[in-house]
């Protein structure tokens, strides 16, 4: 088994791309599960009202569940809301419920609306030993498919931006808007923010299009793009219906192996 070293400081990654269906949630839960499998202490924050990351990690998210909404708008702490995932004790989750759908609008009129998640996360990360818990090594924040206040909160709280890109036509379209937003946040609220990681998803090596998109993305982001590409795989798309990641659902499948390989690359490269 490949050796994963713990990062020097907690790495906080906003997994974002304003396009829907590009593999943000799938990437968040599978990278998190792979890192946890290799000894990392991981927190996933589900910040999409759909709650798909919560589902994939085996966490209930009906409307009575304490969630990210209660952190952003209800004054609750992250420690009060986190739950252990089905993947094991070293992967914990802040669930999202449908209540979050109203948060973009409700946040508009509150103080410090862009920093609510950062304040809560800083408090949580600095008090792990008070609670008798180990330091968190990785935080992955699954963002909704928009560039609104939920995504801004994730980018303000994060130290790194992680962009999954689907290998399809138009893959790079709309990305300049995302890059503008990242720069806005970096220049006004979070100077350490960097695009550290780009992962090509749903790659089909038999098609010219997939290969062209992969080359194109690598040309635009030579440093951030991981060598590993995630193949299109039925096992990956089936796993959530068993409330599992593909890492536990079918660890020997090509999709699981690719996600493990990608997580090893992330761990080896460290924070930039
Ligand atoms: P996003 O969070 O960006 O909206 P998802 O992670 O939910 O995207 O993925 C969109 C859909 O594509 C889901 O149904 C998911 O199961 C499927 N999917 C994601 N990655 C793969 C893959 N590598 N192979 C096959 N299906 C995938
Ligand atoms: Mg999603």
TrEMBL record:
It comes from the Bacteria. SUPFAM superfamilies: P-loop containing nucleoside triphosphate hydrolases. Residues 11-195 form the AAA domain. InterPro entries: AAA_dom (IPR025669), DNA_Partitioning_ATPase (IPR050678), P-loop_NTPase (IPR027417). Pfam families: AAA_31. This is ParA family protein. It comes from Flaviflexus equikiangi.
């Amino acid at each position: 088994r490949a050796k994963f070293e713990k990062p020097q400081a907690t790495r906080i990654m906003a997994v974002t791309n304003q396009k829907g269906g590009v593999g943000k949630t799938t990437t968040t839960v599978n990278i998190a599960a792979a890192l946890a499998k290799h000894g990392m202490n991981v927190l996933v924050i589900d910040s999409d009202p759909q709650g798909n990351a919560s589902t994939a990690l085996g966490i209930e998210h009906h409307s009575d569940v304490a969630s990210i909404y209660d952190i952003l708008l209800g004054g609750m702490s992250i420690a009060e809301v986190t739950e252990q995932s089905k993947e094991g004790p070293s992967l914990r989750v802040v669930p999202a419920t449908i209540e979050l759908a109203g948060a973009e609008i409700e946040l508009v009129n509150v103080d410090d609306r862009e920093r609510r998640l950062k304040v809560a996360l800083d408090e949580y990360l600095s008090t792990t030993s008070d609670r008798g818990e180990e330091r968190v090594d990785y935080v992955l924040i699954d963002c909704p498919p928009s560039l609104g206040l939920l995504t801004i909160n994730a980018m303000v709280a994060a130290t790194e931006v992680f962009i999954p890109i689907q290998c399809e036509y138009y893959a790079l379209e709309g990305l300049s808007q995302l890059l503008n937003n990242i720069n806005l946040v970096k220049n006004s609220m979070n100077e350490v923010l960097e695009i550290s990681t780009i992962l090509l998803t749903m790659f089909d090596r038999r098609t010219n299009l997939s290969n062209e998109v992969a080359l194109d993305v690598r040309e635009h982001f030579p440093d951030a793009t991981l060598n590993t590409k995630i193949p299109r795989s039925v096992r990956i798309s089936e796993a959530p219906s068993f409330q599992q990641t593909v890492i536990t659902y079918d660890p020997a499948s090509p999709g699981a192996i690719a996600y493990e390989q990608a997580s090893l690359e992330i761990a080896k490269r460290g924070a930039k």
